[in-house]
Amino acid sequence: MSEKHLQTGDALPAFGGKLRLFAMRFCPYAERSVLVLNAKNLKYDTVFINLDQKPEWIYNFSPKGTVPALEYEEGKALFDSNIINVFLDEKYPDAPLQASDPIRRAEDKMLVEKFASAQSAYYTAAFNPQALESSMVQNYHKGLELLQTELQDRGTKFLHGDEPGLVDYTIWPFLERFEALPLLGKTDFAIDRTKYALLVTYMDAMKQVPAVKAYGLPAETHKKFTESRASGSPDYNMLDTSAVCCMRPRKKKE
User: Fold this and answer.
1) Residue 50 · residue 6 · CB < 8 Å
2) What's the alpha-carbon Rg for the chain, to the nearest Å?
3) How many CB atoms lie within 10 A of CB 76?
4) Which one, 13, 23, 75, 224, has the greatest CB density within 10 A?
5) pLDDT, tens digit, 9 for 90 and up, residues 235-245
């Protein structure tokens, strides 16, 4: 699959009859929906877009031009990862990703909401470090402590249970990116393997989940993209190999 990001002036690819997700390869919110699609083993197409030079047609699927957006029928789409992922879980109920207990579903939503301050701190540290305050570092670590405590209280391998669920796929894309912060010189954001032993065990387990392995990126790659974005020239196509031509060498004439 080509990971080239389409931009202003590029034509909308023809609809292929499958679910189609509009995304940006390095967007954690788009990754949430990719993980759910993968976990559900659904067939889908992905269209990556350049968020700085957006193709005109993205507004037909997402009013604000944000990603992800899911085209579930030709010309009909949903936007916002939370809306998309609940829709996918309800539309395709095999292997449900939400808890059957309404109280646990509510607790999962509250956990995601409380974790948001750590996400906000990450964005500041990664893309606006001059605005970073000590309170943000504290909020970041409170988020990590929150997850570790929740894992301990639940006593399960994943937040959802013995297998990952929607709550895990919602939080994971940020944990994946958190590991890039020390590589960017933000040592205060390191996830200490001793202090956060249970959380690290959870993260290691998430990296082995098929839905994550099929799409996740290493910290070094997130570092490189973050640096490019912080410089003002985000390298959206750094992973695209579609233009590389692999030809067998010609045999020499005898």
Assistant:
1) yes
2) 20
3) 9
4) 23
5) 999 998 754 43
Q: Is 27 a catalytic residue?
A: yes
- 190-206 tens-digit pLDDT: 999 999 999 999 999 99
pLDDT for the residue numbered 253:
36
- What is the reported pLDDT for 207? 98
Residue 254 in this model has a pLDDT that exceeds 90: no
DSSP code string of 8-28:
TTPPPPPP-SSEEEEE-TT-H
Q: Is the CB of residue 141 less than 8 Å from the CB of residue 160? A: no
Phi, psi of 134 (to 5 degrees): -60, -30
Catalytically annotated residue among 21, 24, 27, 167? 27
Is 89:36 a contact under the CB 8 Å cutoff? yes
Q: Is the dihedral of CA 151, 154, 160, 166 positive or negative?
A: negative
Q: Which residue has the tokens 């994971």?
A: 172
Tell me the pTM.
0.93
d(CA 214, CA 88): 19
**Nearest alpha-carbon partner for 166 in 240, 86, 253, 75:** 86
Give the SS3 label for residue 48.
Answer: strand
Burial class (CB in 10 A: 0-12, 13-18, 19+), 52: middle
Domains of the chain: 19-91 (3.40.30.10), 102-230 (1.20.1050.10)
